[in-house]
Design brief:
This is Fumarate reductase flavoprotein subunit. One of its GO terms (molecular function) is oxidoreductase activity. Its cofactor is FAD. Residues 32-395 form the FAD-dependent oxidoreductase 2 FAD-binding domain. It is a single chain. The protein is an alpha+beta fold and 431 residues long. 35% of the residues lie in helices and 19% in strands. The chain has helices spanning 11-15, 23-33, 40-60, 81-95, 147-154, 173-180, 207-212, 231-234, 236-243, 255-263, 282-291, 303-310, 314-330, 409-428; strands at residues 4-6, 64-68, 75-78, 105-112, 115-122, 128-132, 136-138, 161-163, 192-198, 218-220, 249-254, 297-300, 351-355, 357-363, 374-376, 382-388. The chain is globular and about 75 Å long. The two termini are 36 Å apart. The mean pLDDT is 95.
């Protein structure tokens, strides 16, 4: 799912006409977005070094094809997407003699006299490897596939969210190994990177996904709207905050809507599909979800019948639809100000209700670190030899990921903190 990386004021961006940004302005807007919960020193070091990191990646063979963004234009999209990025960096590491052990999981850190002395890991055959090393850099991707940690730190009802990634791939191993040797947990604040509405059983980037995040009428357990449905595209992370506050969320559509999506396409753009591009497999993908028997697709001949099926008050749902259809007729959404282009009326049946969860990619909080990516203990002191980067770290997000302001930050943060850790580790080792 890797698409691109944030870079600010790099030469590649300048060469294709992206403006130069004042980093103080970027920082202040970012902190305003994060409600000043993010560490400004961490953010500024990231921003200041991001251009050099883009150049470094290019020297290693990474190619970009566009720089864009809803806020600052910082998102550098990889040519060949994430596969090219991973394969290129993997090949570069192997050329330098790096030994990469796959299907091998870190188990615990080895400490000696208060300093890191190595790590124990489990091989695919179950054997335990002891790797002696004065430096360990943790980069295990956070804890997005660890339900217990999600519940503990984010406090989100697990029935309301759905992970779109590799099951079991990011279990919080790095964070937990560090916590076990006394690392601070104060930056474990439960920041989940939402990407918006998602049907349980679906696949991210599918035609069905494209349809379910469209700005169609969406209601909660009370049969009422709760946000501008277009917020899912404008800022999916902010949308996610609203979604998970509801007991249930349903997207209401008609058979005519489904037919239109299939033959003409959906009304708004997404990274994988342009607006008004036919989605020929859309209905087939709905049928696939129905066959999974997850209880998230409802079809009825009347609004009353649909309300009964989704256990929503009939009067409330009918009032919402009547009011919404009025907005569609006048072209003015008096509740949430959704653009007229995305006001699509609910016409004649059959009627569909799709029960939506909120999808998420990853977690954006973790261990407390210095600007050099050194891990801190509970007293705010550096744990010698222990470093962390990317989603194993916290302090760079407030309560919501800033995708709509500085897109590509997650991967930019990962690449830059990885470099910070390696550079300081070399200093620590006197190399």
């Amino acid at each position: 799912m890797a698409e691109g990386i944030a870079g600010i004021n790099d030469e590649y961006a300048k060469s294709i006409g992206i403006p130069t940004y004042d980093l103080v302005e970027v920082l202040n807007k970012a902190e305003h977005y994060h409600h000043w919960k993010a560490d400004p020193e961490l953010l500024m070091r990231f921003y200041e070094n991001s251009a050099d990191t883009i150049a470094w990646l290019q020297k290693l063979g990474i190619e970009f094809n566009v720089v864009q963004g809803m806020g600052f234009k910082t998102h550098h999209t990889y040519e060949g997407m994430g596969k090219q990025y991973v394969n290129t960096l993997g090949a570069a590491a192997e050329q330098l003699g790096v030994q990469i052990l796959t299907s091998t999981t870190g188990q615990e850190l080895i400490m000696q006299d208060g300093k890191v002395a190595g790590i124990k890991a489990k091989a695919q055959d179950g054997s335990i490897l002891t790797i002696n090393a004065p430096v360990v850099i943790l980069a295990t991707g956070g804890y997005s596939t660890n339900p217990e940690m999600i519940k503990k730190y984010a406090g989100v009802d697990l029935e309301k969210i759905a992970y779109a990634g590799l099951p079991g791939s990011t279990n919080g191993d790095g964070i937990n190994m560090a916590l076990a040797v006394g690392a601070s947990d104060k930056k474990l604040t439960g920041v989940i990177q939402y990407f918006g509405a998602f049907m349980d059983g679906d696949l991210f980037s599918s035609e069905l996904y494209n349809g379910m995040v469209q700005p169609m009428l969406r209601v909660n357990q009370d049969g009422k709207r709760f946000i501008s449905e277009f917020m899912n595209q404008m800022d999916p992370c902010m949308y996610g905050n609203a979604h998970v506050q509801q007991d249930a969320v349903y997207q209401i559509m008609t058979k005519a809507d489904l037919d239109r999506f299939t033959t003409q396409g959906a009304p708004s753009d997404l990274p994988y599909y342009r607006a008004n591009t036919p989605l020929p497999d859309f209905v087939n993908q709905i049928d696939r979800i129905v066959k999974m028997d997850k209880g998230n697709v409802f079809v009825a001949d009347s609004i009353d019948e649909l309300a009964d099926m989704i256990k929503v008050d009939k009067t409330a749902l009918k009032a919402t639809i009547d009011r919404y259809n009025g907005y569609c007729q006048t072209g003015k959404d008096l509740e949430f100000g959704k653009e007229a282009a995305f006001l699509s009326p609910i016409g004649d049946g059959p009627y569909y209700a799709f029960k939506l969860k909120c999808g998420y990619f990853c977690t954006n909080d973790g261990l407390e670190i210095t600007p050099q990516a050194q891990v801190l203990d509970k007293d705010g002191k550096v744990i010698p030899g222990l470093y962390a980067g990317g989603n194993d770290t916290g302090g760079w997000c407030g309560d919501t990921y800033d995708i709509a302001l500085i897109p590509g930050t997650t991967q930019g943060w990962a690449a830059n903190t990885g470099r910070f850790a390696a550079e300081d580790a070399a200093r620590y080792l006197n190399k």
